[in-house]
Design goal:
Helix content is 54%, strand content 0%. It is mainly α and 119 residues long. It is globular and about 50 Å long. The protein starts with a helix and ends in an 11-residue tail after the last helix.
Amino acid sequence: MSQLSEFLSEHKISAEALIKASHAIETPSVEDRALMAARSNARRTKKPYAELSLGKPKSRGRGVTLDVLNRAMAGQPVPRLVRSKILRAVNDRLVNSKKQPVDWRPLFADAKVKKAVLL
């Protein structure tokens, strides 16, 4: 068992609840969609984001899936972006149950980083 699975069982957070929370968090809002469109237009016209005062959208597109969550709970290496999405979902569940949000260390200190494949 990994530290993530132990943490989830200790705080009684189910995998289904995490997946539902992740999809709710990562779904782009109207503001995020407008910001992504403005950033796309800036790239097309080759203008820097700072010149147009464009920030980053809060959502990252897709939530985590059950397969990826099971791999993370088994202690297999997962990418950094997936770990951050899982962390956001865990913190959302903890805040909803009136507990303090956690850092990534109690969840992924034992997990190895999945290296990017360069072609």
